[in-house]
Amino acid sequence: MQPQPTSPAGPDRRPITWWWFLVPLLTCGMGTFVMVLVGGLKLRSRFHTVAAAGYFLLTVIFFVGAQFTTPGHVGVADAVITPFFLVDWLGGTAHVIVLQMKARGAAPVPVAAASWPTGTDPALAAAQWRAQRRQEARALLTTNPPLAAELRIGRPDLPGRQYDDGGLVDVNHVPAGYLVSELDLTPDAAAEIVAERERRGGFSSPDELVIFCSTMTPERLAIIRDRLVFIPV
Predict the structure, then answer these.
(1) Is the distance from CB of 191 to CB of 211 less than 8 angstroms?
(2) Residue 203 falls in which region: left (phi positive, over 0), alpha (psi -120 to 50) or beta
(3) DSSP annotation of 70
(4) What count of other Cβ atoms lies within 10 Å of the Cβ of residue 211?
(5) Exposed, middle or buried by CB within 10 Å (0-12, 13-18, 19+), for 54?
(6) Average pLDDT by consecutive 10-residue portion of the chain (233 residues)?
(7) SS3 string of 181-219?
(8) What are the Cα distances from residue 142, in Å, to 39, 138, 152, 167?
(9) Where are the transmembrane segments (predicted)?
(10) At 169, is the secondary structure helix, strand, or coil?
(11) Per-domain residue ranges for the chain?
(12) How far apart are the C-alpha atoms of 57 and 108, rounded to whole Å?
């Protein structure tokens, strides 16, 4: 069996980041600024890039302050540099953990389209890729709701969204216009869904759309079911 492509531009290759936190943890903070800089560059984040410079400054302060300490004796210098050391080490480790999760959730890194199996229809490959993206996004909704919220999964109406969830639509939150444009529903069907979700405080499953919305038929639901999510209101 030939492997299926997982991206419209080639197979889906995500960065392996789980080990990032080990660098600041095992180096007692000395490697914090390196990993924060790497994460900031990968995410194209000015904030994290500037933070890397801050961690580098903390490292310098620690080494300079260590020159004024006396082995076996706790003095003023120790009291001054210890907070810098802890921020650089423990705070930096926590910072890198957040960065590695963000980098893992960012857009995948595609490889050349030349690696696609010969004869693959581009439209079919794109549809298969979107289906896999939806599956991954659903897993995030289940296992890591805070990260899913930050990635704006199911919310094509929110600005600044970078994560591609394969076309998922949060029926409980998106405006009626997006139910029309993203799910190909009629304006009347979208308006009824919005009115009913407000009356009920949201839906909890696709089947409730058929039960409580007269404009939603089982046939239409079967077509769009895979694109629906129902994040609690």
Answers:
(1) no
(2) beta
(3) B
(4) 11
(5) middle
(6) 43 68 91 90 85 90 75 60 85 90 65 50 85 93 93 94 93 96 95 96 95 95 96 91
(7) HHHCCCHHHHHHHHHHHHHHCCCCCCHHHHHHCCCCCHH
(8) 25, 6, 14, 17
(9) 18-38, 50-68, 80-99
(10) strand
(11) 12-105, 125-229
(12) 32
Q: Which two tokens stand for residue 165?
A: 């969830």
Return d(Cα 26, Cα 29) in angstroms, integer.
Answer: 8
Cα 40-45-49 angle, rounded to 5 deg: 50
CB atoms within 10 A of CB 181: 15
Q: What DSSP string runs through 81-112?
A: HHHHHHIIIIIHHHHHHHHHHHHHHS--EE--
Collapsing DSSP to helix, strand or coil, 168 comes out as coil
pTM of the model as a whole: 0.52
> What radius of gyration, in Å, describes the C-alpha atoms of the chain?
24
pLDDT at 1: 40
Cα–Cα distance measured from residue 88 to residue 96, given in angstroms and rounded to the nearest whole number: 11
Bridge partners of 110, per DSSP, are: 12
Q: Among residues 110, 83, 91, which one has the least CA distance to residue 11? A: 110
82: CB partners within 8 A, 6+ apart: none
Q: What are phi and psi of 192, to 5 degrees?
A: -70, -40
Tokens linked to 53: 């410079």
The residue to which tokens 């609690």 are assigned? 232
